[in-house]
Amino acid sequence: MSFDELVHYLRLGGLTMAVILLSSVLALGVAIERMLALWGAGSKARVLGQTIARHLLRGDVAAARSAADRDTSLSADLFRAGFERAQKTVGPPLDAAVDRERQQLALKMKRGLWILGTIGATTPFVGLFGTVAGIMRSFKELGVDVEAGGSGGSAAVMTGISEALVATAAGIVVAVEAVVLFNMFQARLGRLNVELKLIAEEFVELLREAPRQTTPSPDAAQAAPAPAPVSGS
Q1: pLDDT one-digit tens code per residue, 47-86
Q2: Which of 164, 166, 169 is nearest to 124 (CA)?
Q3: Most buried of the four, 12, 44, 196, 229, by CB within 10 Å?
Q4: pTM above 0.90, yes or no
Q5: Cα–Cα distance between 204 and 109 in angstroms, integer?
C-alpha cells in the first residue's frame, strides 16, 4: 500500500480512523514506558537480595540496611520496609509488613496496563462502528445518485463498502497489538512477582534470625552513672 493510498483510507475513515491511530500510538507509548520502568527489575532485585542476605548471614544488620538504603531499584522499598518493622518486632507483623510492601510494588509495576487491556477490547468495536457508518454513507450516496437520475449500480456500493471495511481491519490490527503487549507484560509480571515473593520470604527468615542490634538512647546514656575516678596509690 502506497503512502497516497494510506492517506486516502485515513481520509475516508475520518474520526474513526483517527481514534484507532491514536489508540495504537497510546498502546505503543504505554508499552515503551513499562519496558523502561521494568528493565532489569528482576535481576536488580536478585542482586540486592543476595547482597543483603550475605550481610545478614554474617550478622551485620547495619551493613544490610545500608545496602538497601543506597539502592534505587523498585525492590529496595521492600527491604527498607522490613528493616523498619524489624526495629519494633520480629514476629508475624514483620511478615505482614514485607508482604504488604511486595503487593504495593506489584501494583506499581502493573500501572498503565489497564490501558492496553482497554484498547485491545474496544478498538475492534470502534473499527466496526466506522465500517457501519461507511456502509450507511455509501447507500445514502447511492440513493441520492438514483434520485438525481444517475444509473447507480452495485459497483459504487461495493467500492464504498470495501473502503469502509478498512476501519474494521485497522481496529483488529490495533487490538491484536494491544492484546499481545498486555499478555506479554502480564506473563513477565507474574514471573517477577513470584521471584519477589521468594526473595521476600528468604529476607524475612534471615532478618528474623539475625541478631537485633540495639543502640542506647541519648536519655539512657545521660542517665548512666559516670565511672568513678581511680585514685593513685
Answers
A1: 999 999 999 988 888 999 999 999 888 888 889 988 888 8
A2: 169
A3: 196
A4: no
A5: 22
Q: Would you give the distance in Å from CA 171 to the centre of its chain?
A: 24
DSSP assignment string, the chain: --HHHHHHHHHHHTHHHHHHHHHHHHHHHHHHHHHHHHTTHHHHHHHHHHHHHHHHHTT-HHHHHHHHHH--STTHHHHHHHHHHHTT--SHHHHHHHHHHHHHHHHHHTTTHHHHHHHHHHHHHHHHHHHHHHHHHHHHHHHHHHHTT----HHHHHHHHHHHHHHHHHHHHHHHHHHHHHHHHHHHHHHHHHHHHHHHHHHHHHHHHSPPP----HHHHHHSPPPPPPPP-
d(CA 203, CA 17): 51
- Grid cell 559516670 in the structure block, residue: 226
